[in-house]
Design a protein that fits this description.
Length: 267
């Protein structure tokens, strides 16, 4: 594993430690106690256990650093210089149903700017990581977004919509509409973090989703950018919006895809 800095090593070690218990929990999925947190969004005992291990490890290395984590919220809120952004399991629904497609995602901000990110898929043993200015990596290899320049040869991915989404038009209609417009296959795998990682690694040519949280995308943003990818925030439009609508892709199909998505939205 080519880790570029002590900080990446801290994230990596925390994820490796947490993933051991996560893998065990995945093996005993039926026994997990599940409680609902809201529509389409489940919290599991494994979620909390994973989060606890990651946070303990990160705090051991830097007791005063800030943390924003999906389940527990904020720690050391006053620290505006350094902050970890954690999604202990991205793809909880997959996890709960025994589908081996989910990841731990940890991003790191310096003075409010995202500078490091690591996304670890514990079942496939795949690590995507990047540090600002040092490129993006998949396990031991450097990764780049795909070079495809025509939507019609591309493979696209999306997620959602959430049940309470204002854009909750029938998902099948949405697919049919978009498919007709873009003439390309569309996948929906159920993990935003892995969706972005796959664009970074050139497995997907684009991934978009509406109404994501910051922890879903923080690590992915660094990895994607360092892999030469683009991220666009669409209506309302910024990383700080409460509802982050993102479109991630290589630069070559960005305009064509955006035009198709915008067209779909106004129809
Ligand atoms: C979810 C996953 C899913 C996406 C949802 C996210 P969670 O995160 O990324 O792919 O469609 O919008 O909330 O709840 O599994 O951490
Ligand atoms: Ca998530
Ligand atoms: Ca989660």
């Amino acid at each position: 594993m080519r880790l570029n800095s002590p900080r990446m090593t801290v994230i990596y070690n925390a994820c490796m430690k947490a993933s051991k218990s996560l893998i065990r929990d995945f093996g005993e999925i039926e026994k997990l106690q599940v409680s609902t947190k809201g529509p389409g969004d489940f919290v599991t005992a494994a979620d909390k256990r994973t989060e606890k291990i990651i946070i303990e490890e990160l705090l051991k290395a830097h007791p005063d650093y800030g943390i924003l984590s999906e389940e527990i919220g904020e720690i050391n809120k006053e620290n505006k210089e350094h902050r970890w952004i954690i999604d202990p399991i991205d793809g909880t629904l997959n996890f709960l149903n025994g589908i081996p497609h989910f990841a731990i995602s940890v991003g790191f901000e310096e003075k409010g700017e995202l500078v490091c990110g690591l996304i670890f898929d514990p079942i496939k043993n795949e690590t995507f990581f990047a540090e600002k200015g040092s490129g993006a990596f998949f396990n031991n290899s450097r990764i780049r977004v795909s070079k495809k320049n025509k939507l019609k040869n591309s493979i696209l991915a999306t997620g959602g919509p959430k049940f309470n989404s204002p854009k909750k038009n029938n998902i099948f209609q949405e697919y049919i509409k978009i498919s007709n417009l873009v003439d390309a296959p569309i996948r929906k795998f159920g993990s935003a973090a892995l969706g972005m990682s796959y664009v970074a690694a050139g497995r997907f040519d684009a991934y978009w989703e509406w109404e994501l949280n910051y922890w879903d995308i923080a690590a992915g943003i660094v990895i994607l950018k360092e892999a030469g990818g683009f991220i666009e925030f669409i209506e309302p439009g910024t990383i700080n919006s409460t509802k982050r609508n993102i479109l991630t892709t290589n630069s070559s199909i960005l305009d064509e895809l955006k035009a198709a998505l915008v067209k779909k939205n106004i129809e």
